[in-house]
Specification:
The protein is of the alpha/beta class. Among the domains are: 55-188, 3-Layer(aba) Sandwich (Rossmann fold), CATH 3.40.50.10860; 207-368, Rossmann fold. Helices cover 48% and strands 15% of the residues. The structure holds NADPH dihydro-nicotinamide-adenine-dinucleotide phosphate and (2Z)-2-iminopentanedioic acid.
Length: 444
């Protein structure tokens, strides 16, 4: 058996109870065989065994007191996956589904994504199974403070720099930062996604969604096409979804459907984003309210049905495994031309294969959603340089980074005669830089 397959088999045995981590690792490793054929020296160096094993996993108790005076306990995680290229960097997720498997899959993806940005950031991820839904402001703050009271000792502006992810937005980053600063007595760039009044960067809020759409526009442009007049489905209605929607609309597309975890809205005339922002960002409400406020829109319980709506472009921006084989078949049947992954691993392995066979352009998460972490790295640069760039400056850098990522994955795919296979291209291009840095640093 070849080296890559034997490492993957061992990984599956060792992590049999971590299905999401096994899924992400399978996708990555199944693209890397040609790299190892060119670099036989990697096997002797145990490079792949080291690459798939996180440098460190921290798991901790997060006790907090609810509004009724009851003590609650959640579980916290930080997986410091790989620091070959730079300090660990990656978001924190607060969602009841969070477990070690989810954090490790997000961590290994982050290592390659951060490498693709071309910026000096390693990969990490963290979070908790704390459920922010239905909690009061006070409960959210006390949870964040307790979480940071343990996590702070593992962080540092040159060691590990978290940011947001599902359930962690600007409010939570504020509470986490306040507690870090209080414990350490240092006002430094140890978290990104901070508010603009205390060290944040312009464009960070919009960056993941905007970056995704910049890459979609670039991929269409190379095919003599554009977003103008395209029907787009954007799943989710959180940070990534809202700003993907905003940029797609500004480039002339029509967004026809979105969802939250309860159900989806369809508005074939084109979604009114101002109403979505009011419900989601201001009121923290449910998406069903959109159909109550906008004439002609409909609401449907459950999420999966969204993929039966005819569209030209699908942008899954909610969570892992949103598009399974069944949904992929429906999208293909309705003539979808391009999938751009805003969420992390939103497409199952079988669905990716179906899109590949059908010739659908597929922009994988680690490339397509890298605009968020790239802008986080720009926030780190501004913090340490005590600078503040304008919106236009940061946006121009984001655009150029997304374009660079598209070029690297496209070129890597061509170099290995896999033209247009961006899953392979992104994995190979991301991995090669990490491998080079790891080889240079010896057995660590
Ligand atoms: P948010 O918490 O802002 O929004 C998440 C959205 O997805 C909400 O609409 C939420 O609905 C929905 N959602 C979450 N879980 C499920 C589920 N199990 N089924 C259906 N819908 C669900 O998170 P973000 O927008 O920040 O993150 C979205 C995705 O993008 C994640 O995969 C994240 O890892 C990825 N990502 C985020 C980046 C960032 O900068 N924030 C950067 C790169 C990737 P509800 O409110 O009902 O739970
Ligand atoms: O998945 C991701 O890239 C993020 N959640 C953003 C990470 C970051 O450090 O900005």
């Amino acid at each position: 058996m070849d080296y890559v397959s034997s490492v993957l088999n061992e990984l599956k045995k060792k992590n049999a109870n971590e299905p999401e981590f096994v899924q992400a690792a399978t996708e990555i490793l199944s693209c890397l065989e040609p790299v190892f054929e060119r670099h036989p020296e990697y096997e002797r160096a145990g490079l792949l065994e080291r690459f798939v094993e996180p440098e460190r996993v921290v798991m901790f108790r997060v006790p907090w007191v609810d509004d009724a005076g009851m003590v609650r306990v959640d579980r916290g995680y930080r997986v410091q996956f790989n620091s070959a290229i730079g300090p660990y960097k990656g978001g924190l997720r607060f969602h009841p589904s969070v477990d070690l498997s989810i954090i490790k899959f997000l961590g290994i993806e982050q290592v390659l994504k951060n490498s693709l940005t071309g910026l000096p950031i390693g990969g990490g991820k963290g979070g908790s199974d704390f459920d922010p839904k239905g909690k009061s402001e006070g409960e959210i703050m006390r949870f964040c403070q307790s979480f940071m009271t343990e996590l702070y000792r593992h962080l540092g502006q040159d060691a590990d720099v978290p940011a947001g992810d599902i359930g962690v937005g600007s409010r939570e980053i504020g509470y986490l930062f306040g507690q870090y600063k209080r414990i350490r007595g240092e006002h430094v760039g140890v978290l990104t996604g901070r508010g603009l009044s205390y060290g944040g960067s312009l464009v960070r809020k919009e960056a993941t969604g905007y970056g995704l759409v910049y890459m979609v526009e670039e991929a269409l442009g190379h095919r003599g096409d554009s977003l103008k007049g395209k029907r787009v489905i954007v799943s989710g209605s959180g940070n990534v979804a809202i700003y993907a929607c905003e940029k797609a609309l500004s480039l002339g597309a029509k967004v026809v459907a979105m969802y939250d975890s309860d159900g989806y809205i369809a508005d074939m005339g084109g979604i009114d984003l101002a109403v979505i922002k009011q419900i989601k960002e201001v009121e923290r409400g449910r998406i069903r309210e959109y159909a109550e406020r906008v004439k002609g829109a409909s609401y449907h319980e459950g999420c999966r049905g969204i993929w039966n709506i005819p569209c030209d472009i699908a942008l899954p921006c909610a969570t892992q495994n949103e598009i399974d084989l069944h949904s992929a078949k429906a999208l293909i049947k309705n003539g979808v031309k391009l999938i751009g992954e805003g969420a992390n691993m939103p497409t199952t392995l079988e669905a990716i294969e179906a899109f590949r066979k059908a010739g659908v352009v597929f922009l994988p998460a680690k490339a397509a959603n890298a605009g968020g972490v790239a802008t986080s790295a720009l926030e780190m640069a501004q913090s340490s340089g005590r600078m503040f760039w304008t919106f236009e400056e940061v946006d121009a850098k984001l655009r150029s980074i997304m374009s660079g990522i598209y070029r690297s994955m496209d070129e890597a795919a061509r170099e290995y005669s896999l033209d247009g296979d961006y899953v392979a291209g992104a994995n190979i291009a991301g991995f090669c830089k990490v491998a080079d840095a790891m080889m240079a640093q010896g057995v660590v």
